[in-house]
Design goal:
The chain contains 11 helices and 8 strands. By secondary structure, it is of the alpha/beta class. It has a single domain, classed as Alpha-Beta Barrel (TIM Barrel), CATH 3.20.20.70. Strands 3-2-1-8-7-6-5-4 form an 8-stranded parallel beta sheet. β7, α9 and β8 form a beta-alpha-beta unit. α2 packs antiparallel against α11 and α6 packs parallel to α7. The protein is globular, with a radius of gyration of 18 Å. Bound molecules: 3-hydroxy-3-methylglutaryl-coenzyme A and magnesium ion. The site of 3-hydroxy-3-methylglutaryl-coenzyme A has 29 residues, from α4, α5 and β5. 3-hydroxy-3-methylglutaryl-coenzyme A binds next to α4, α5 and β5.
């Protein structure tokens, strides 16, 4: 077992975006920047810093332009931000971001609730700006939501997600993040889904974005690892959730993911103690306990 697990994986940290979009409080801009600095200090290199979505829909991230302006820009760090439309792309370009992330749901109903458009119209909208974004030098990532299940429609066919993935890749997305938006995935299902994508797309063009509502995120990630996936989205403290997907609890906690990967001998470049400290910064920002099962005590000593 575990012969195919990669030696090294990349963690794509989403707490400043997926985490803070789902909080009741709106965190002051400078404190968001402080969280991102703490995440950088842990060694994370890929950070989704905010969203260029409508401030009416997600007021918690209305200060996206200011957040990007405050961030340090160390070499080798790749910031990204969610972007639903051409307006978001223009804002990202103006802010000088090197990467944007488009998002669409495999479920018609969730897509409608999340972006007020059909799947077909969302894809048509993407055609207006993904290719121009790539042409202007940005990397474009694509999320496909509700692949493991939808809060409105229940089970979603694998083919409906694959159709979207083909189009996103055709338009120029360098990576597709396969998303379990509400955390209903289980390991055999994960094997079916990930194998279906691997049959069509190279493994480095795929990522997994697992919410941990029912405690199955790490189990699903182990399946992804065994199949050779090398990018995993995570959020410190397990913060996160989609405001337009009822029942979407937090993402897999970055601390839990790094702890598991360290123990498996998979390199991440992330220092677990510093990551724990970043989680404490997040906890202070949101003003409540973190949803993830995050333990400081003994992360090092337990292993030594
Ligand atoms: P709409 O109301 O249908 O469209 O929103 P609109 O074009 O009529 O825009 C409404 C207003 O917003 C207008 O302003 C626009 O100018 C403005 P007004 O004229 O009324 O003053 N607007 C914008 N402002 C700033 N930046 C923009 C922008 N676009 C329009 N980019 C829209 C359509 C897509 C904009 C809206 O539905 C929206 O912003 N939705 C985003 C919802 C969201 O962020 N959901 C959570 C993220 S997805 C997620 O969490 C899943 C993920 O984590 C993966 C997973 O777990 O599955 C990624
Ligand atoms: Mg999410």
């Amino acid at each position: 077992m575990f012969e195919s697990v990669p030696d090294e994986v990349s963690i794509y940290e989403v707490s400043p975006r997926d985490g803070l979009q789902n909080e009741a409080v709106t965190v002051p801009t400078t404190r968001k920047a402080r969280l991102i600095e703490a995440l950088l200090a842990s060694g994370l290199k890929r950070i989704e810093a905010t969203s260029f979505v409508s401030p009416k829909w997600v007021p918690q991230l209305a200060d996206a332009d200011e957040v990007i302006g405050l961030l340090p820009k160390p070499d080798g760090v790749q910031y990204s931000a969610l972007c639903p439309n051409a307006k978001g792309f223009e804002r990202a370009l103006k802010a000088g971001l090197p990467e944007i992330a488009v998002f669409i749901s495999a479920s018609e109903t969730h897509n409608q609730k999340n972006v007020n458009k059909t799947v077909a119209d969302t894809l048509a909208g993407f055609r207006e700006f993904i290719a121009p974004a790539v042409k202007s030098g940005l990397r474009v990532r694509g999320y496909i939501s509700t692949l493991w299940g939808c809060p409105y429609e229940g089970e979603i066919s694998i083919e409906s997600g694959l159709r979207i993935a083909r189009e996103l890749v055709r338009e120029g997305c360098y990576q597709i993040s396969l998303s379990d938006t509400i955390g209903v995935g289980t390991p055999r299902q994960t094997e079916r889904i990930v194998r279906a994508y691997l049959a069509e797309f190279p493994r480095e063009t795929l990522a997994m974005h697992m919410h941990d509502t029912r405690g199955t995120a790490l189990a699903n990630i182990v399946v992804g690892l065994e199949l050779g996936i090398t990018t995993f989205d995570a959020s410190v403290g397990g913060l996160g959730g989609c405001p337009y997907a009822p029942g979407a609890a937090g993402n897999v906690a970055s601390e839990d993911l790094v702890f598991m990967l360290d123990g498996m001998g998979v390199r991440t470049g992330v220092d677990l103690d510093k990551l724990w400290a970043a989680g404490q910064v997040a906890k202070a920002l949101v003003g409540h306990d973190l949803p993830g099962k995050v333990h400081k005590a003994g992360v090092r000593s337990l292993r030594n």
